[in-house]
Amino acid sequence: MGNNAKIAILMGSDSDWPLVKKAVDVLKDFGVGFDVKVLSAHRTPGKVREHIKSCEENGVKVFIGAAGKAAHLPGVIASLTTLPVIGIPIKSSATGGIDALLSIVQMPAGIPVATVAIDGAENAALLAIQILSVSESSLGEKLKQHRKNMESSIEKKNKILQEQIIKPEA
After folding, report:
1. In terms of pTM, does the model score above 0.90?
2. How far apart, in whole angstroms, are the C-alpha atoms of residue 111 and residue 124?
3. How is the chain split into domains, by residue range?
4. 76 in Cβ contact with 46 (< 8 Å)
5. pLDDT tens digits along 52-103
6. Are 89 and 118 in contact (CB under 8 A)?
7. CATH fold label, 7-135
């Protein structure tokens, strides 16, 4: 784990990587340190416990857990730390990810896990950055700029669309 990791991402399977990479790309864009591991709530519970403890000792401030199907990983993470945990339900089963969403969002009282949309990796990263921005104003400024960039992008797309739809009559 890098010394500057502020966000730890755990995924239950390496098959989750293509989706989790979207969160990693957002964190890189914002210059936020992170750590990524494949650890299973069911197959490597001891390693999950050790990793959570190590992350806390090394200054991690927010956890992101990505998991499909039974999706216990985010809840297990939350049971092992009092730091914020964000769950990403992965669309990996015949139910389209609804099983993972419900597994993550239906945590028992006292052990909360923030949950984003099915396959919502980018929003998980942005939510983690928002949490960090409470104590790091530079991240808050980057988030404001990100929103302005999104607004500009939509305005440009609308302009192009309007030009395609409404062509001046010759």
Report:
1. yes
2. 18
3. 7-135, 137-170
4. no
5. 999 999 999 999 999 999 899 999 999 999 999 999 999 987 899 999 999 9
6. yes
7. Rossmann fold (3.40.50)
